Amino acid sequence: MREIHFVSADEAVKVVKSHDHIHLSSVASVPHILIQALCRRADAGEIEDVRFHHFHTEGPAPYSEERYNGIFFDQGFFIGPNVRANVNTGYADYLPVHLGESQKLYRSGALRCDVAMVQVSLPDENGMVSLGTSVDCSLAAIEMAGHAIGVVNKHVPFAYGDLVSLDAFDFLVQDDTPLVTKDFAEPTPTEVLIGKNCAELVPDGACIQMGIGALPNALAAQLENHKNIGVHTEMFADGILRLIQKGVVNGANKKIDTGKVVASFLLGSDDVYNFIDHNPDVLMKDIKYTNDPWIIAQNPCMMAINSATEVDLTGQISADSIGTRIFSGTGGQLDFVKGAILSEGGRSVTAFASRTNKGKNKIVPVLNEGAGVVTPRADAHWIVTEYGAVDLYGKSLQERAKLLISIAHPDDREMLDRAAFERFGPHYHNFSI
Question: Of 63, 65, 97, 59, whose CA–CA distance to 78 is shortest?
Fold first, then answer.
């Protein structure tokens, strides 16, 4: 390993000027040591109007807080719990973009990147480092930034895929703070039922995309008797890792990256991070690659499995907001929906509980006022709840309404049926599905 010249975080962030746009590596690999140094500059009155861009971040997010109003302004590509309240009170903001195009914002010049701040692994013998658990659009940010700061952290796994030369960085900082982890979320009985309904749609040899949380974990648990599953996804976590360890996931049927698990960012336990370290069977790639529908579609039987905050009776899928309140973001949902639809034998699946934890129905007559449509009704195919699975493809509006009502919570069906009758008129009850 070649000798590295390190500077302090305080020295490195001196390159940041007022009015700069900063990219942060995201999710589990946020360079908190640099954020803390920037906060010290802000507290000293040295900078103002600095903007941050990133995927969702774990850990403290002072750049979104009211106390730094006028100094920092967060404009994330995807909203996590640590900034959600501040986004919805105006002290931070959401920048809508399909995650597959987030890198294009930088590469096209649509969005400035004055300083890229990312965490990287220890270098290999050739002076190459890995972006570890957060490749996402960080590669594009490094390419386009006026200045790049790399935090070399021994806990960042060296993941194969898209690597970066140490020469790409203007400053290198050392920090050995462990990455943020997320424990395996145990599914509820409702989520287990949803997982079973989803698993019945997944054939042996399929290639899957799904996210993180109890519902994806529930699906993964129901795939344990499947064979030759492949993975091409934005991210994966412990649920997928368990399938790999059981031999269910081997990627044998993938037409591209055969035998490889492909992802762009991760959030999970240390077991997940250790698994990708120097593992040639895992490729951590630029989001431009992982989320390109034409790349996704090259794998047969591509199964895109996503969630929703609401679905209306015509199949419009909201996943980024609850009414006007931003909850998360567009993410890569439509990237993978399109890829799965184009894939030979592929399926797009939207899975969710029929009601929220507070008992509010998620299959609704119309979306809440101000809600964002992430997946248009024309791209809505399989919809799954704990009460079953229905395919909306090739179905008219009235047929869709009947199908969706059949998998709504039983106590909501009469209300939904009445709303459908009021919308479509007396002919609505004159045919069956």
Answer: 97
- Number of residues that this document lists for the chain: 433
Q: Residue 1: which pLDDT band, with cuts at 50, 70 and 90?
A: low
- On the question of pLDDT at 97 being above 90, the answer is yes
DSSP structure class, residue 137: T
Task: Clarify whether residues 418 and 272 are in a common domain.
Answer: yes
Query: Residue 278 maps to which CATH number?
Result: 3.40.1080.20
pLDDT digits (tens, 9 = 90+) for 61-89: 999 999 999 999 999 999 999 999 999 99
Can you tell me which residue has the tokens 């976590």?
237
On whether both 301 and 357 belong to a single domain, the answer is yes
Give the residue numbers spanning the domain of 303: 189-430
Q: Extract the runs of DSSP E, i.e. beta strands, from 136-280.
A: 147-152, 163-165, 171-174, 207-209, 230-232, 235-236, 261-263, 265-266
Residue 229 lies in a domain: yes
DSSP string, 283-325: EE--HHHHT-HHHHTTSTTEEEEE--SEEETT--EE-SEETTE
Q: Please give the tally of structural domains in the chain.
A: 2
* Domain-located, residue 180: no
Please compute the mean of the pLDDT values over residues 18-41 and round it to a whole number.
Answer: 98
- Smallest CA-to-CA distance from 208 within 247, 266, 248, 157 is with 248
Please tell me the distance from the alpha carbon of residue 61 to that of residue 202, in angstroms, as a whole number.
Answer: 38
Active site residues: 234
